[in-house]
Design brief:
Bound molecules: flavin-adenine dinucleotide
Oligomer: single chain
Number of helices: 13
CATH architecture of the largest domain: 3-Layer(bba) Sandwich
Radius of gyration: 23 Å
Number of domains: 3
Largest sheet: 8 strands, mixed
Number of strands: 22
CATH class of the largest domain: Alpha Beta
CATH topology of the largest domain: FAD/NAD(P)-binding domain
Shape: globular
């Protein structure tokens, strides 16, 4: 029988991996189970990539508390996990006297209540910093603390650090059922393949599906509904140096324009309620809504060239706030659920809250004295970059960088996984130029590893080329 774990985290998005990293700093047996075959396959991979300050969060909410604490934790984490971060700041523009009044009367005091520094600037300063912004705007609210990161990097780095500290990470492990032990001493987690994991506590970080995980212990205390956000990516140069956002609507932070940490600009997202938790398709109407929204901020945007469009789904919670608490039906299941629109930014604070909740249980949590706090140079960023021929011309990614991504801990053998680990295929040509060469590197590298390892064992990537061609014939997905 499988040994008894102390904590199993369900879900390998930014929230689940932040939690498993935080738990891996303690002497405990920790496991993360993720339904998909990599981390960051859910909402965490398709968002605006902004590390928000929480200036506009509802004071006193769980969300604003997590954002406040995360603001304190990010500077150290960004350094320790080598997270690419663009501290560009944001500006919320006032397009009318009514919006200016809303900024001054609502957003300034709200930001102050949340401890976030903001300042109102007049039109001249706004246009000096962001020449492409419409001249009709009256001014804007600058939020210096906001910045842009790479969400996949954050999620991967959390998971890699946890793995280095001994946490076990299992992909392709969808949770199907949770059964409390008869004597309530532990939970039995039953996976889709029928295997069982016994654990003292479980953490529900299953994003859009966290209400279904709750339901597994007959907890119907919250419901999650998806709200789609569609985006456009452009590599054109835009005359903005900050994240430019409108005064938000009740359902979303509004359609904005933001720099991408590795280059280019992101436009969007829309806010469309739907029922299907899997539908991340983009639509003509959605694209038009994005362009209409951004046009109000940047009148010349329609001349920009789109290189990609994609959509993400927010997990909208019926409670209206994050749910970070033990389930009312089982004290052994801790929810980190309903993390709607700021989960990337608030993930360190959420993780700390979950650790605190677990510390108040019967678990013995002593700090690991030899815990690794900084991520080593796993992808060989320093030496691999200069190693070998350039495979991705748009992003100057070398053979060495691809090979390091294939061999690093928590490596991936899918094109998407390599794309997100190296940045290859993310440039202007979106992989059209480099995919054949990439497949060659991936196939020969893993084949040589496979042969060396298992004397004739089939190469792990066998069939990748065929599945890529099949995918092309059927239309490639729109995800980043
Ligand atoms: C359009 C849009 C824009 C956004 N912009 C920002 C932003 O700029 N800044 C910001 O901070 N936040 C932003 N967000 C919010 C942020 O992306 C989310 O809050 C965050 O990604 C939620 O992370 P998560 O780990 O809870 O969920 P997910 O990333 O969805 O992870 C949940 C994981 O659980 C797994 N799972 C589900 N069911 C099971 C099961 N039964 N067994 C095992 N695994 C399971 C899933 O496969 C998935 O990988 C935005 C969101 C959207 C949609």
């Amino acid at each position: 029988m499988d040994s008894l774990r102390d904590v199993v985290v369900i879900g390998g998005g930014v929230v689940g991996t932040a939690i498993v990293r935080a738990l891996s700093l303690y002497n405990m047996s920790i496991m993360l189970v993720e339904k998909q075959h990599d981390v960051c396959e859910g909402t965490s991979k398709a968002n605006s990539a902004i590390i928000h300050t929480g200036f506009d969060a509802k004071p006193g909410s769980v969300e604003s508390d997590c954002l406040r604490r995360s603001r304190e934790l990010w500077p150290e984490l960004i350094g320790a996990l080598k997270i690419p971060f663009l501290p560009c700041g944001a500006v919320m523009v006032a397009a009318s006297e009514t919006e200016k009044a809303k900024i001054i009367e609502h957003y300034v005091p709200n930001a102050e209540a949340n401890g976030v520094e903001v300042r109102y600037i007049e039109k001249e300063e706004l246009l000096e910093m962001n020449p492409d912004v419409s001249e009709h705007n009256l001014g804007g609210l600058v939020i210096e603390g906001e910045g842009i990161c790479d969400p996949f990097w954050v999620t991967r780095a959390f998971a890699q650090l946890a793995e280095l500290n001994g946490a076990e990470i299992r992909f392709g492990s969808g949770v199907e059922r949770i059964e409390p032990a008869d004597d309530d001493s532990h939970l039995v987690i039953v996976l889709e393949d029928g295997s069982e994991i016994r654990t003292r506590y479980a953490v529900n970080a299953a994003g859009l599906w966290s209400d279904e995980i709750a339901d597994m212990v007959k907890d119907e205390s919250f419901v999650i509904t998806p709200r789609k956000g569609q985006f456009i990516l452009t590599e054109d140069t835009l005359g903005i140096s900050q994240i430019v956002l409108p005064v938000p609507s009740p359902s979303s932070k509004g359609i904005l324009a933001a720099p991408v940490v590795f280059g280019g600009f992101l436009l969007g997202p829309t806010a469309e309620d739907q029922e299907d938790k899997w539908d991340r398709s983009t639509t003509d109407d959605g694209m038009e809504a994005v362009l209409n929204g951004v046009e109000k901020l940047l009148p010349g945007i329609r001349s920009a060239t789109t290189i990609r469009q994609f959509a993400g789904l927010r997990a909208v919670c019926s409670t209206g706030d994050f749910v970070i608490s033990p389930s009312p039906r089982s004290h052994r299941l801790i929810h980190a659920a309903g993390i709607r629109s700021t989960g990337l930014s608030s993930s360190p604070g959420i993780a700390e809250r979950v650790v605190e909740l677990l510390r108040s249980t019967d678990l013995i949590m002593t700090e690991r004295s030899e815990a690794i706090l900084e991520l080593p140079d796993l992808l060989g960023e320093s030496d691999a970059a200069s190693n070998g021929e350039i495979i991705c011309l748009c992003r100057s990614i070398t053979r060495g960088e691809i090979e390091r991504a294939l061999s690093a801990p928590l490596s991936s053998t899918t094109l998407d996984g390599i794309k997100r680990r190296t940045g290859a295929m993310l440039g202007e040509c979106q992989g059209n130029g480099c995919i054949p060469k990439l497949l060659d590197v991936m196939e020969s590298f893993t084949a040589s590893r496979g042969l060396a390892k298992a004397g004739g064992e089939e190469a792990p990537l066998k069939g990748l080329r065929e599945s890529y061609i099949a995918g092309q014939a059927g239309g490639r997905d729109n995800e980043i």
